[in-house]
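wait is this the right file?? whatever heres the structure
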């Protein structure tokens, strides 16, 4: 792969107009603006990140998380450009890398259904373990694998490029480079790992991704011929996400009193050498508000991780370009930071992700999603029934519930559900089950 081909302003769905636009904004800035003003992006404000949506204490939702990831992603891109620009002075758009990454970061969570990873799991298990099992014979092997391993990552690409009914060709009509930068797992579900079962695009978008990969010169993996290698900027988008969710989850846990102040301060100080710890503690003493002290440490940790991840990318540029770099930037941090990051991960798993507050949301979300699927899938498969007709009127026309294939019908339902906010899903659940009736 080479940067001259990897960085392209060609827009998906508007290829014939490539190069004809004149605008003071760069094409990648246009991507960012298009995403941030979109309805799917706004809906992220009411989608769970980790903790329940705010009560008396405000914690992160998908929207605030995505904005922070975009900020960190831009910094990573700028750092990488500064480290490599002497060698890339003749490469078109190389200095735009920060803008590409920030746009991709805004989009990276757009495909996530309500209630976080619990929503993904509920969708997958409805078909692999629930009443949806009966549909297996109605789909190809590839289509069935898409459904039973449902992936928010793959759904993000679908949301961005699929032409929904009544909408324009190309979906969001983003640049090829921005689209490629969000695909962490550049292969279809049928070629995913049996254990991890992550993948980057559904069967319905397979040809579209192949078109993007060919245009950008993204090669196939030598080790796994049925997979593509990652677009290099994926590593920076992934690092921005890894930095933000891990560090910000620790800070949120402190605000919710799941972690004590001493625990949180200790976790953050672990990232620094003894000398730097002393300097950080001296600076902390300038303020007495413990939340402000922790915010200072959090920002210091993020700043250090940005510098270190940028260095890892620059040092491994050649292996990233030839597709032989088979790790993440986070896993290649210097030992001090790597050990501290691992300690944060272990603490988060033990005390945060398994906390009662998180589990309660996951359990409720699981039930809500399963119930919606039961009713809506039945309706699209039996549209002639009276109840189905009433229920189908609730689904916006952009979703192709009258698709000629069972796979298409099911995907239309999943498009509808995945676009819901937590509150909308709960409200529809209550109405469908008769728990809530509008006032007469």
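ok assuming it is, sequence goes like this
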């Amino acid at each position: 792969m080479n940067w001259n081909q990897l960085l392209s302003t060609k827009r998906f769905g508007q290829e014939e107009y490539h190069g004809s636009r004149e605008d003071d904004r760069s094409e990648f800035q246009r991507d960012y603006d298009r995403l941030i003003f979109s309805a799917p992006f706004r809906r992220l404000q009411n989608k769970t990140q980790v903790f329940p949506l705010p009560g008396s204490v405000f914690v992160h939702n998908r929207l605030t998380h995505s904005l922070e990831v975009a900020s960190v992603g831009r910094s990573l891109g700028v750092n990488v450009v500064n480290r490599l620009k002497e060698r890339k002075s003749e490469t078109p758009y190389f200095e735009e890398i920060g803008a590409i990454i920030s746009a991709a970061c805004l989009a990276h969570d757009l495909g996530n259904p309500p209630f976080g990873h619990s929503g993904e799991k509920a969708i997958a298990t409805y078909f692999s373990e629930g009443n949806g099992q009966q549909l297996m014979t109605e789909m190809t092997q590839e289509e069935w694998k898409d459904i039973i391993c449902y992936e928010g990552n793959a759904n993000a690409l679908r949301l961005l490029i699929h032409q929904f009914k009544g909408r324009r060709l190309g979906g969001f009509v983003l640049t090829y480079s921005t689209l490629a930068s969000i695909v962490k797992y550049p292969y279809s579900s049928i070629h995913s790992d049996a254990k991890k079962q992550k993948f980057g695009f559904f069967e319905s978008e397979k040809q579209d991704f192949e078109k993007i990969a060919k245009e950008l010169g993204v090669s196939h993996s030598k080790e796994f011929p049925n997979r593509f290698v990652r677009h290099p900027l994926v590593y920076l988008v992934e690092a921005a996400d890894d930095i933000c969710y891990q560090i910000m989850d620790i800070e949120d846990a402190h605000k919710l009193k799941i972690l004590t102040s001493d625990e949180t301060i200790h976790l953050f100080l672990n990232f620094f050498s003894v000398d730097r710890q002393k300097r950080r503690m001296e600076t902390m003493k300038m303020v007495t508000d413990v939340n402000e002290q922790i915010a200072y440490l959090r920002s210091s940790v993020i700043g250090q991780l940005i510098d270190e991840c940028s260095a890892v990318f620059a040092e491994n540029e050649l292996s990233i370009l030839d597709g032989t770099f088979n790790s993440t930037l986070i896993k290649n941090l210097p030992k001090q930071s790597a050990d501290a990051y691992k300690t944060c991960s272990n603490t988060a798993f033990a005390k945060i992700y398994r906390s009662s507050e998180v589990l309660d949301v996951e359990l409720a979300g699981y039930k809500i999603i399963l119930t919606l699927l039961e009713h809506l899938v039945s309706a699209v498969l039996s549209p002639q029934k009276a109840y189905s007709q009433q229920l189908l009127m609730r689904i916006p026309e952009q979703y192709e519930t009258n698709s000629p294939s069972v796979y298409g019908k099911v995907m239309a339902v999943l498009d509808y559900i995945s676009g819901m906010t937590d509150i909308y899903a709960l409200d529809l659940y209550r109405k469908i089950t008769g728990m809530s009736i509008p006032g007469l």
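The longest helix spans residues 290-315. so i think its the right one actually
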